[in-house]
Write a structure and sequence with these properties.
With 746 residues, the chain is of the alpha+beta class. Helix content is 20%, strand content 26%. The protein has 14 helices and 42 strands. Helix 5 packs antiparallel against helix 6 and helix 7 packs parallel to helix 8.
């Protein structure tokens, strides 16, 4: 089989260490580590100070902290904080060609050996490259089903070796062929086991009455470059017969690979991968999906559709070989349980694909790059060293990765039993005293006893309260206060701190005071529970020298405007205030008085120093953002201007170029206008009356004409003449002799 990569479908489950990142939280100190080893396991950023005189006698300073905090607190450089690292032990360059008798000198993967030193939670990364070299040796072992259904196929491949060798030598100069065959297990119910079938299981089968005895697997031809030997061996073969349809193909594959029998799919996939064997299933179309599903369970497997007469077998093998050579996928062997691996593939398009360890669409000579990150979740219990292997599926090459764990502190090797630093009553290790039984104290200077319980009250602020206010430990009848990530805890009973005071917008004592034992001590110029109130009124003075422009009150150094409509830092802006227009009038009058040279007039400059002047012919009176002002001048004219407050604090004045002046009304003009209006109204009324009369007359005449046209009589007759004789008809009925009569009498 070809020594080349093929797909592997596997899944790595990675557990992520979630580190709290809340403001003010120090995970190292909150972990309450009591030893260097415990500190290293809390978080990869935590360090342990092993300096002997670190901290204060009256406070418990955590030796497990961030490096910057330890240095700040006086540890210097005496701390343990190992980091994960990578060392490349062997890295031979990739080969460009692979033609050689043994291929042992061909390098398709680099590096070949890497050593990792891992601290739990701390990732380290290394790079590796895989290349499909040109002219790489290929061994093809042809394993054929010789059950009776394959008789026609056997006839079609009599000269397979010659044709296949010709095609494969176009791809590699080092090609070898092997041959084996199988039918099924020679036991019931797989084969015919009755005595009469022992020598010829085809007895009684009319279509093909003669065949060879059934067998499981036969290794017929070892790998060789002699094509004629392959052809000769194929010509010798005869088919056999078995009972059930699924022949013993998996048994034969495992036998051909490692000489083992009775496989499971898991065992088959494992052994093929161990021996860098890529499996090609050549099956008919009806069985394609069945074997396609096996590719997810057997790494390096390719499935191709075989024609009923096997005539496409050569092209099938070529296609499968090209498919195998176009992919590179990493497989992991013997991965430690407590190790997470993260892959990022960089394929031929130059793009990075996080979470992917496979590249496809490669050509011979292309190089696929992978970035591998390793992270230990915890420290191993017993074995401190592990080894695992990264191997491209189907490749002989592999990368051996050795893993050691940084779980032990260097300072732990210098133990001092019964050390004088521990008053002779304990073991000194990594800056701490591990006291012997019945001894207490940071230096093991106190001994436990019945009398000690009575003295613990010396560590209580009052009877019934917790020892050291619950924020320290009582050692030798004295409180040693704990260290807090929020600040300092102090006091004879650890009852005080410098962080439990009132805050303003999250700032302790508003930044204008110091926190002492729960109370803000304000700096000069500030008052209040949280020191947020300034006593300085200079910030409330307006430009005219008035406090808040006389429109509000100065509270804690800020103006609180009370005049409706007033705003600004000193309530200086108020477009709706009654005096808003009067404050700008002086500037406008000065501008009108010195319209020729206002810029040269010192008075106008002083009055208009905070205004931006804009001259206009008309003023928009419905502008909601501008205050409209007008006043009457000495000449009975109306001067109009508008102003708006600018963000810079200045005002924008829009001033008319000329005041609006009216003229006295003319009496003659008014009289003529009134008389003319009356005449026009009279004429209009007469015209309307005349129009109505005309319309009425026309309607009456039209009515007369209509009645006249309806008259119908002859010209010679008198319509007023009446005849002198009149005729009347009376209808009556009477009964005589019971007979009815009507109008006549007999």
């Amino acid at each position: 089989m070809p020594r080349a990569p093929a797909p592997l479908y596997a899944c790595l489950l990675g557990l992520c260490a979630l580190v709290p990142s809340l403001p003010g939280l120090n995970i190292c100190t909150s972990g309450s580590a009591t030893s260097c080893e415990e500190c290293l396991l809390i978080h990869p950023k935590c360090a342990w100070c092993f300096k002997e005189d670190f901290g204060s006698l009256r406070s418990v300073t955590s030796r497990c902290d961030l490096e910057a905090n330890l240095v700040k607190n006086g540890c210097g450089g005496e701390f343990e904080s190992p980091a994960s690292s990578t060392r490349v032990l062997r890295s031979l360059p990739l080969s460009s060609k692979g033609s050689s008798p043994t291929s042992s000198d061909v390098i398709q993967m680099t590096p070949q050996q890497v050593a990792l030193s891992l601290r739990p939670g701390d990732k380290t990364t290394f790079q590796l490259q895989v290349r499909q070299v040109e002219d790489y040796p290929v061994d093809l072992y042809y394993l054929m089903d010789l059950s009776l259904s394959m008789k026609d196929d056997l006839d079609s491949i009599r000269n397979l070796g010659t044709k296949l060798a010709e095609e494969m030598r176009k791809l590699t100069s080092n090609f070898r062929l092997g041959f084996g065959s199988f039918v099924d297990k020679n036991i019931s119910p797989f084969s015919y086991t009755a005595p009469r079938y022992q020598t010829n299981p085809c007895i009684g089968y009319k279509l093909f009455p003669n065949c060879v005895p059934s067998f499981g697997f036969r290794h017929l031809l070892p790998l060789t470059d002699r094509v004629d030997s392959f052809n000769e061996e194929v010509r010798k073969q005869r088919v056999s017969r078995n009972r059930d349809a699924p022949e013993g193909g998996f048994d034969a594959i495992l036998q051909a690979a490692v000489c083992k029998d009775y496989p499971s799919l898991a065992l088959l996939g494992e052994k093929l991968a161990e021996n860098n064997i890529n499996l090609i299933f050549a099956v008919t179309k009806s069985h394609y999906m069945l074997y396609k599903n096996f590719t997810a369970l057997i790494p390096g497997t390719t499935v191709e559709i075989l024609h009923g007469d096997s005539k496409n077998i050569i092209q099938l093998i070529i296609n499968a070989y090209n498919s195998i050579r176009s992919k590179v996928e990493l497989s992991v062997w013997d991965q430690p349980e407590d190790l997470n691996l993260f892959f990022t593939a960089t394929c031929q398009d130059g793009m990075s694909y996080p979470g992917q360890r496979k590249c496809e669409g490669l050509k011979i000579g292309d190089t696929a790059s992978f970035e591998v990150s390793a992270e230990a979740r915890s420290c191993p219990g017993k074995q401190a060293e592990h080894t695992f292997t990264l191997r491209p599926v189907g490749f002989r090459d592999s990368l051996e990765v050795g893993v050691t764990y940084s779980c032990r502190c260097g300072c732990s090797t210098g133990l001092e039993p019964d050390s004088a630093r521990c008053s002779g009553n304990g073991t000194y290790v990594c800056g701490l005293c591990d006291c012997n039984p019945s001894y207490l104290g940071t230096r093991c200077e106190c001994q436990e006893g019945e009398s000690q319980s009575g003295y613990q009250n010396l560590c209580r602020e009052a009877e019934g309260k917790p020892l050291c206010s619950g924020r320290g430990e009582c050692s030798c009848n004295q409180c040693s206060c704990f260290e807090s990530e929020f600040g300092k805890i102090y006091g004879a009973f650890c009852q005080c701190d410098n962080f439990s005071c009132a805050r303003n917008r999250g700032v302790l004592c508003s930044g204008h005071g110091e926190c002492h034992c729960g109370e803000c001590k304000c700096h000069a110029g500030y008052i209040g529970d949280n020191c947020n109130c300034s006593t300085d009124i200079s910030t409330c003075l307006a430009k005219d020298g008035q406090i808040c422009s006389d429109r509000g009150h100065c509270v804690c150094g800020q103006c609180q405007c009370t005049e409706p409509g007033a705003f600004g830092e000193t309530c200086e802006k108020c477009p709706t205030c009654p005096d808003a227009c009067s404050t700008k009038r002086d500037c406008v009058e000065c501008l009108l008085l010195h319209v020729g040279d206002p810029a040269d007039n010192q008075t106008c400059q002083n009055l208009c120093k905070d205004e931006v002047i804009t001259w206009a012919d008309t003023i928009v009176k419905d502008d909601q953002e501008a205050a409209l002002c007008f006043y009457k001048t000495a000449k009975d004219c109306v001067m109009m201007f508008a102003y708006t407050e600018l963000p810079s604090g200045r005002a924008n004045l829009t001033v008319l170029r000329e005041p609006e002046c009216g003229t006295a009304p003319n009496a003659t003009t008014i009289l003529l206008a009134v008389v003319g209006s009356i005449l026009l109204i009279g004429i209009a009324l007469l015209a309307i009356w005349k129009l109505l009369v005309t319309i009425h007359d026309r309607r009456e005449f039209a009515k007369f004409q209509s009645e006249r046209s309806r008259a119908r009589y002859e010209m010679a007759s008198n319509p007023l003449y009446r005849k002198p004789i009149s005729t009347h008809t009376v209808d009556f009925t009477f009964n005589k002799f019971n007979k009815p009569y009507n109008g006549t009498v007999d």
